[in-house]
User: What shape does this take?
Amino acid sequence: MALNIAFIGVGNMARAIFSGMLASGYPAENIIGTSRTPEKRDFYHEHYGVSMLADNFAAVDDADVVVLCVKPAQMKVVVEEFSEHVRSDQLFISVAAGIELNALENWLGKPVSIVRSMPNTPSQLGAGMTGLIANEQTTDEQKEWVSELFASIGHSVWVDQEDHMHTVTALSGSAPAYFFRFLESMITNAKAQGMDEETSRQLASHAMLGAAKMVVELEEPIEQLRKNITSPNGTTEQALWSLDASDIDRVVGDAMTACINRSKEMSNDFSVQSDEE
Ligand SMILES: NC(=O)c1ccc[n+]([C@@H]2O[C@H](COP(=O)([O-])OP(=O)(O)OC[C@H]3O[C@@H](n4cnc5c(N)ncnc54)[C@H](OP(=O)(O)O)[C@@H]3O)[C@@H](O)[C@H]2O)c1
Assistant: This one.
């Protein structure tokens, strides 16, 4: 029988996850969401068939699995409101950026299974990549269930150290924005060559999609894929020389380090919040 799952805070990320679950055949009657806004509750109930409540406590009380989907800044207040009624057989999954397992453990107030996840925006299209880490209480069976949950919105990987969640943020969490930025730059430059925006967008975006598919689907080292299309004295070689002359590894490295540093700062802010109780 399907587990009862409650989404606390139904916005973009919760909707991406439960619409993926519904598309994979998860029964709508086993899904509850919460929102403070009556119009949103009506909308999600009518469009997805899930139950919608205003009361987080009632949703948690009825759930085997609770997915915490409010914004990071709201998490402490929301979790502490229902923490007294948490049961030790429940599994909690947080999608909030920057909130560490020990902060969630503090706010929930008793030893329970907790999984921290870092999904990304392509999850909305079932093409997400999610990094996952579990606390000690989480069983292998629960981890398997969580992997299946995130399979409904794309792929997932488990990391074994929480510190790696910062790297997950820099590698897959924020990465769609790097690629958007790169595409913007390519399109701007194609327009400078006289091509119209729509044609430039189609050419650049499908090139990126095709390249990503080659990386994911062909079992070849990425370096080899690059070499295969870099003929000596050809056009690609000229472009790659130019990128290397601009020290692309340093540019990307600086961007990822900036992302990791900010992720660490955010985690520190939330752990201070949990120490201040
Ligand atoms: N979007 C992404 O791509 C992405 C990627 C990775 C991680 N995340 C994480 O996902 C979480 C949610 O992000 P989001 O983009 O989905 O945000 P969002 O669209 O703003 O959704 C958050 C929802 O929480 C609801 N909410 C706020 N306080 C509540 C309360 N006390 N009780 C019940 N519901 C409450 C809000 O609805 P009402 O105001 O109607 O209550 C809102 O719709 C964040 O923690 C974020 O870090 C998001």
The chain has twelve helices and eight strands. The beta strands are 5-8, 31-34, 51-53, 65-68, 91-94, 113-118, 128-134, 154-158. Residues 61 and 85 are 7 Å apart (CA to CA).
